[in-house]
């Protein structure tokens, strides 16, 4: 981390930083509701790598092109994950809203080279021990419990009552948290607050409680290991410390919870608003699979990911990237790159999207498969139990969350025939 005296402020970046006069502010209503149009405009005006301004006017590069995102994520020797390399740290205030995403933490997310391979290897081995059929059964039970909580009323708000809760409970079950306890429910709620705070919530306090509870879980499993992800991480020959396991478990849980929740909700929105799926979606597994995959291409839950940091001066997409510059991975923009879809047609059977990123720092195998089990089970179980489900508002009245990072609805109200329990 560099330390320069008399540094310029965040709104007037130092010479050589990517704060072009025509840099695009990443934010605003247009960005939130119709980001695909923003990406098209940026691609037309700036090419595959665009100069952008983050919160507070902090400069960065947004990588929009599919080949360019693939290149960045495949070349760790040029574009690394340790955020301490960033040349903008002297300009970042202590209350900067993106600090939770870019502030260095000793977790697998920011680890590099051999350390990253060691940490990611432990996670991969632990996740490979999850029985996918057992996970599907557990998620079906969770789904049925959640549906029973609102099926008698004939209406529900699926984002909060279903889509968020199911993957949180599912991933905690994988980690060995006993389902249905007050303890687990509190952790589910704290996870939601720390990742997706509502008005009046305290995400910092919630994140602190998450860390404390996961540390207790690790200590409990060290004394009494079980057939779960936490125990397998503890028993791995790599010999991670409790602190390392806590950091990496939180990374796994966070990566599984909010993106999967948005994947579920975005898929339900597609099924309920697109007439291509209306005819045969009820119980139609092929249609649900097509919808899940199409969402990963066109409404991917993580639309932008911050980031990579340039190890040295280099070229990318015709741009000079300076050592220490921040690159934001435009996963949603890359997935809709006209170079790979020249006729604007996304083939649902193609799964070469970048929604789980790419390269050494992509979601560790088999995390995408486990996320698919959770999302598919959530959507299919809901459709089977509430076959006449319809939107509770006009489709054009649905609104997206004000986030440039996650692509998710603020709410998904639905109506259906009430059922007797």
From TrEMBL:
Q: Which domain of life is it from?
A: Bacteria
Q: Where is the composition biased (Low complexity)?
A: 1-10
InterPro entries the UniProt entry points to: Cyt_P450_B (IPR002397), Cyt_P450_sf (IPR036396)
**TM ranges:** none
Region of interest called Disordered, as start-end residue ranges on this chain: 1-20
Q: Which family does it belong to?
A: Belongs to the cytochrome P450 family.
PANTHER family in the record? CYTOCHROME P450 YJIB-RELATED, P450, PUTATIVE (EUROFUNG)-RELATED
Q: What is this protein called?
A: Cytochrome P450
User: Which organism is the protein's source?
Assistant: Streptomyces doudnae
């Amino acid at each position: 981390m560099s330390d320069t005296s008399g540094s310029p402020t965040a709104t007037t970046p130092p010479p050589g930083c990517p704060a072009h006069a025509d840099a695009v502010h990443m934010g605003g209503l247009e960005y939130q509701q119709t980001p695909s149009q923003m990406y098209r405009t940026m691609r037309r005006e700036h090419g595959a790598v665009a100069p952008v301004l983050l919160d507070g006017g902090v400069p960065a590069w947004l990588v929009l092109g599919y080949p360019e995102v693939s290149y960045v994520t495949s070349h760790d020797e040029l574009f690394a994950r340790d955020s301490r390399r960033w040349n903008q740290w002297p300009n970042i205030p202590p209350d900067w809203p993106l600090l939770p995403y870019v502030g260095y933490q000793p977790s697998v997310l920011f680890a590099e080279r051999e350390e990253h391979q060691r940490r990611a290897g432990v996670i991969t081995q632990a996740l490979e021990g999850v029985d996918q059929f057992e996970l599907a059964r557990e998620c079906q039970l969770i789904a049925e419990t959640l549906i029973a909580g609102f099926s008698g009323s004939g209406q529900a708000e699926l984002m909060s009552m279903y889509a968020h809760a199911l993957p949180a409970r599912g991933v905690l079950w994988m980690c060995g948290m006993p389902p249905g306890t007050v303890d687990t429910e509190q952790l589910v709620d704290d996870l939601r607050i720390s990742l997706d705070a509502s008005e009046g919530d305290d995400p910092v306090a919630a994140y602190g409680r998450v860390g404390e509870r996961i540390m207790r879980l690790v200590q409990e499993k060290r004394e009494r290991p079980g057939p779960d992800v936490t125990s397998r991480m503890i028993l791995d020959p790599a010999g991670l410390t409790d602190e390392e396991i806590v950091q990496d478990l939180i990374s796994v849980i966070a990566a599984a919870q909010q993106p999967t929740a948005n994947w579920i909700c975005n898929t339900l929105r597609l099924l309920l608003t697109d007439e291509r799926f209306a005819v045969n979606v009820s119980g139609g597994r092929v249609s649900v699979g097509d919808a899940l995959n199409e969402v990963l291409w066109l409404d991917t839950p993580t639309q932008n990911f911050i980031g990579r940091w340039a190890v040295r001066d280099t070229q990318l997409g015709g741009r000079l990237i300076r050592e220490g510059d921040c690159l934001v991975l435009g996963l949603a923009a890359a997935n809709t790159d006209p170079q790979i879809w020249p006729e604007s047609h996304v083939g649902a059977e193609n799964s070469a999207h970048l929604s789980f990123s790419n390269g050494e720092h992509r979601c560790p195998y088999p995390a995408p498969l486990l996320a698919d089990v959770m999302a598919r089970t959530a959507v299919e179980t809901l459709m089977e139990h509430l076959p006449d489900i319809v939107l509770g508002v006009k489709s054009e009245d649905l609104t997206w969350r004000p986030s440039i990072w996650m692509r998710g609805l603020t709410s998904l109200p639905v109506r259906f025939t009430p059922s007797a329990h």
